[in-house]
Amino acid sequence: MLVVTFVLGLVAQGSRAAEEQSAVSLRVLVETRLGELDAHSLAERSRAERQLLDLGPDVLPLLPAPDLVRSPAVREAVKRVRRQLEQRAARESALASRVTLHGEWTIESLLTELFQQTRNRVELSDAARSAVKADAARQTRNFEFDKRPFWECLDEVCQQWQLRAEFDAQRAGLLLTPRQPSDLAELAVQRSGPFRLAIHSVEVRPVVGTTDRRLLRVAGRLAVEPRVRPLFLHFAAGDVQAIASTGAAVAAWNPAAKYELPVSDAGRVVPVQFDYVLPASVASPKNGKPDQAAATANLLFDLKGRIVLQLAAGTERIVFDKTSQTAGTARRRGGVTVRLREVKFEPSATDLLRAEIGVAVSYDVGGPAFESHRTWMFHNAVYLETEAGQRIDFTEYDTTQQGDGGVSVGYRWEKLTAPATRYLFVYEAPTLILDVPLEVKLDGLKVRLE
Asked: Beta partners for 355?
């Protein structure tokens, strides 16, 4: 075990050294291309812009803020490059995370590697850690993942160690706990992109006041990778069709219904439910017996259709340093603009500082994410950062204005160490609001009767 840990440590050190060297090389390359954006030749300038785009979204943190670039031509080129790369990064963040790893792993080292590759936080509960340590045969497991989607990998990890994953709001990630006999059974699972749809029940229920039809209810949970920030689930009742094993399509319970479900800021799991009318022609056997329950026990159902999740994608750090912490200063990233409304650092009775910073945040697009529910915007990460990189979260906040596409919020901090110039103000905002479809395709759902 010591040998395995030592080898993994050497591999990790080598990997970190390679990453650091790669980061230095990338920075030098970006600086070279930025210099070429000011070349005399149009061909050279165009080539430098294309090459910056070819480097991909990894160069975004290395691009200067446009308002810090003196040359108007270079400033416009940097804006174009940033805009295209931000949109690409936002769309890529809505794809499935991929995992590549091979060989024997302890569960702790495996979860660390998963985070490094996907930025999805997965942790062990105390009970899970104790259960794994108590069984000598479960200390390590062999895995062969080659660009496998995150949810497939995590399901295999849970199967190998007899664990289950649940979302933990406080950790903003997944918590692995031991499996229990009382856990909800998963009748069917579909993994697509960053989504995992699990069906937990397919029930036929009586309809009060009628004997010629019954209610078919399919219920489950839609989970999203922890790194992804879902805002809304929306679909129409007719968007997902149920088809009986007899070949008959089953009508939606309320064909005109449209659903728009806000996702809690505290989690990444959305309960889903699809209701259908089960008429006698589907539920009754061919011999005409009226016992619908007995007939339905032999029926299976397929679900086919589409639901859509609206995601806040492409989160970026928008930073105001000591030279830009003045009212009216604005920073734009992708489709979002953050403008400082006020900045105050004042001494308190204890010789420490009290800070008040007001911001106006606006998006280029409005719509459902802004019209009726804006709570997600109040959960954007906002903090002060010291020269040493220490993060200081705000003490309290209040909303001063709301409108379609934006909000104004005031943040306050207490007991800050002087001087005020040592602090950066950081606002982390998703740069793009995306509608990401999930094509539902679940076959052979078995009915449970009530």
From this structure: 345, 413
Q: Whole domain around residue 6: which residue ranges?
A: 2-93
Q: How far is 154 from 167, CA to CA, in rounded Å?
A: 13
pLDDT along the chain (450 residues), means of 10: 39 50 80 92 94 90 78 90 82 88 94 94 93 83 95 96 88 89 90 94 84 87 90 90 85 90 70 87 51 60 92 84 90 83 86 92 63 63 91 90 74 92 91 84 81
What's this model's pTM, rounded to 2 decimal places? 0.73
Instruction: Locate 103 and state its tokens.
Output: 């060989």
Residue 183 to residue 442: CA distance in whole angstroms? 21
Dmax over Cα atoms in the chain, in whole Å?
88
Q: Are residues 249 and 211 in the same domain?
A: yes
- Number of domains comprising the chain: 4
What is the three-class DSSP state of 389?
coil
- Last residue within a domain, chosen from 93, 123, 145: 93
**Which domain CATH number covers 166?**
3.55.50.30
